[in-house]
Amino acid sequence: MQIFSGLPQVPKELRPQVGQRANQVKQALEAALVERGGAIRQSSLEHVLNSERLDVTLPGRKPIQGGIHPATQTLRDLYAIFAEMGFQVYRTRDVETDEYNFELLNIPAYHPARDMWDTFYTTTPGVILRTHTSPGQIRVMREYCPDPIRVVLPGMCYRYEQVSARSEIQFNQLELMVVGRNITLGDMKGTLNDFARRMFGENARTRLRPSYFPFTEPSAEMDVECFICGGKGCAICKGSGWLEIMGCGMVHPTVLQNGGYDPREFSGFAAGLGPERIALLRHRIEDIRYFWANDVRFLEQF
Ligand code: FA5
Description:
The mean pLDDT is 93. By secondary structure, the protein is α+β, with helices and mostly antiparallel strands. It has nine helices and nine strands. It starts with a helix and ends with a helix. Helix 3 packs across helix 8 (275-283). Helix content is 35%, strand content 21%. The strands form two sheets. It has a seven-stranded mixed beta sheet. The structure holds adenosine-5'-[phenylalaninyl-phosphate] (FA5). Adenosine-5'-[phenylalaninyl-phosphate] (FA5) binds at residues 132, 134, 159, 161, 167-168, 171, 173, 175, 213, 216, 246-249, 270-274, 276-277, 288. The site of adenosine-5'-[phenylalaninyl-phosphate] has 23 residues, from strand 5, strand 8, strand 9 and helix 8.
């Protein structure tokens, strides 16, 4: 390029010759550069092809397949059983108000029954994490009143509990609610017995024990005969021969009224059970803490 820019100083008669020669040199250099560059690229490509050769005969890597969580599996089995009996799934919120979780369920502030549910309060006054799925009773009644209701309400509940082999601070519940005309305790017993047979086998025996919940009257706990020892008594049933599976009862008139139903015309029953506790029994898992510990060695067994 210096020769090109110095051309004006070259005597006029030599300029064409010098210019021509300079052009020849320039073209020769450019051609050499292109050739060498191509050779370098070719040799590096050959190097890569040789060193990173793909061996298509190697066996492939098996993709890791996820599975359904055992708590979700149990919930789905429960939905299927109740669907056969005409129940629909109705979902409600995890974050609730004190009003729905307690007040409208006939548990006023300072009522001693509040001690049954150790509650997580948020920094927003009156807003809590639901301690049970029962507040969904009020929501479903207010949505469907005055139609008859037959639903299951699933979901996560939260309690400020001492964590142990049987109790977690978060766990699922499945709530049952039936409201209509002439619904009796006999309907409740028949439905729950039928459920127990579908869940635990044709010969499953059950019993109702009187209990107390502020939102049902009368209230009961339902036990199923221990299917591990057949009622003889073992470590799982703590020697009693029975396993507690749910709380239940006839919907309290005040709760019906809070849902918009006239208790002189309508009646109903409700129940609440714990899918993880049922999964513990079905799979003989000795500790509820495995469910949310996220240890794949536990989860991949289901
Ligand atoms: C209740 O929560 C009532 N709402 C149930 C009910 C509904 C009664 C409708 C009447 C009518 P309880 O606190 O017993 O009741 O809980 C119900 C079920 O939730 C228990 O039987 C158990 O299976 C499960 N459960 C309760 N606490 C825990 C916990 N900390 N960890 C795992 N499961 C739990």
